[in-house]
Amino acid sequence: MSVLIDPPDWPGPRGLMWSHLVSDSSLEELHAFAVRLGVPQRAFDRDHYDVPETVHARAVALGAEAVSSRELLRRLVGAGLRRRKRR
After folding, report:
1. Which residues pair with 26 in a beta bridge?
2. What InterPro entries does this protein map onto (predicted)?
3. How far is CA 34 from CA 11, 57, 75, 76, in A?
4. 3 touches 64 (CB < 8 A)
5. Quick one: pLDDT at residue 63?
6. Confidence of residue 50 (pLDDT cuts 50, 70, 90)
7. Residue partners of 36: CB distance under 8 A and separation at least 6
8. What is the pLDDT confidence band of residue 48, given thresholds at 50, 70 and 90?
9. What ranges in the chain are assigned the alpha helix state H?
10. pTM for the whole structure
């Protein structure tokens, strides 16, 4: 399994810090993991799920690899799964 999660370093809604959840192999793997984690589809944004700090430990317990934000992006780009915002 190659689902990755970065530290909850991003401020977001409800006064929580947020992480990014990605796969470096396929979006299908990512979506399946998100279902197991209980993350709603609406949390998906182009190539990742935004997940609150309250979910981080559970994601790791379910098998997500905790990596730095830089490493997460490097592996997402390397897998060809990075989808930038349209301008």
Report:
1. none
2. DUF4031
3. 21, 14, 18, 17
4. yes
5. 97
6. very high
7. 62
8. very high
9. 27-37, 53-61, 69-78
10. 0.91
